[in-house]
Specification:
flat
């Protein structure tokens, strides 16, 4: 019964995909009118990268996953930070799920041809588990990459603020201090800052506008607050050096507290293997005596 149920579910899913492809749902009139009257959004500052074999294998299924509403809003924001397009991400999810679904079946077929058959439940369970794991693996990878890039950008932003303070103390203007400080640093974070400032120069907009847009795309409130402080300095003549100094000090304190918390968590995780090893050693030492007492009863 179980193979029949699985085959029936697969056939139903395939028929549903064919119907969706032949007769796609029509958008409502309200959505079409809002799309026509919507103001064009500014081009993104973060550019996606292309994938490898998984993208080429799973690209035919990306449209189907997009039709069911994937990726979600949180994953989409993480994709922007990781500089990966949604199509590439969905293609990788489909490819890994397909590979996980077919790998146990192929291994079971090889064992069957080799004269060592296994029960059908083993490859079926392995196929389902690997398919689900392969489908969720790109989400976890993108989430981890986004977290690492946000942390690295916060550290670089603290150094960027210190450089701006030094340049402002030397008599440089706000615009010149922003550009010169971004040119000094290296790495992905300073590359994004330079790209935002170059976009502001080429589009003839204020640099704090593009910096605020970059902060919204990266979901880093510190960069958004920096853009707000710079806009006050550029438009209303506010004293920016003292506010930048306070902001840099607060970021350093928070970074130190976060680093200390991560170090404490790592120390606690390191204690777990030692506890398990000691528990295993106790069992290894006392098991013969316990077995002897149990046998003598």
């Amino acid at each position: 019964m179980v193979p029949l149920v699985v085959l029936g579910a697969g056939a139903g899913l395939g028929l549903w995909a064919v119907l969706v492809g032949l007769f796609p749902p029509r958008p409502s009139l309200a959505s079409l009118v809002s799309r026509l009257n919507a103001t064009p959004a500014p081009p993104p500052l973060l550019t996606p990268t292309q994938g490898g074999w998984a993208v080429r294998l799973g690209s035919p299924f990306a449209g189907l996953l997009r039709a069911v509403g994937l990726p979600g809003s949180t994953v989409s924001q993480d994709l922007v930070i990781a500089e990966r397009s949604p199509e590439t991400h969905l293609a990788e999810k489909a490819a890994l799920a397909l590979a996980g679904l077919l790998l146990p079946a192929a291994v079971g077929l090889l064992l069957l041809l080799g004269g060592r058959p296994v029960p059908w439940a083993v490859p079926l369970g392995g196929s389902l588990a690997l398919a689900v794991g392969g489908f969720l693996l790109p989400d976890a990878t993108v989430r981890g990459e986004a977290v690492r890039r946000r942390d690295a950008f916060r550290h670089a932003l603290g150094a960027y603020l210190n450089l701006i303070q030094v340049l402002l103390a030397g008599g440089a203007g706000v615009d010149g201090a922003l550009t010169d400080a971004a040119d000094i640093g290296q790495g992905w974070s300073f590359q994004q800052l330079r790209r935002a400032l170059n976009t502001a120069r080429l589009t003839r907009t204020s640099p704090w506008t593009t910096l605020g847009q970059l902060g919204e795309e990266l979901r880093i409130s510190d960069l958004t607050e920096l853009a707000t402080a710079l806009s006050l300095a550029g438009t209303e003549g506010a004293r920016v050096r003292s506010s930048l100094a306070a902001k840099a000090a607060a970021m350093r304190q928070r970074s130190g507290a976060e680093a200390e918390g991560k170090a404490n968590a790592a120390t606690e995780r390191m204690a777990l293997p030692s506890i398990l090893m000691a528990f295993g050693f106790i069992i290894f030492v006392f098991y013969p005596a316990l077995a002897q007492v149990t046998n003598s009863l």
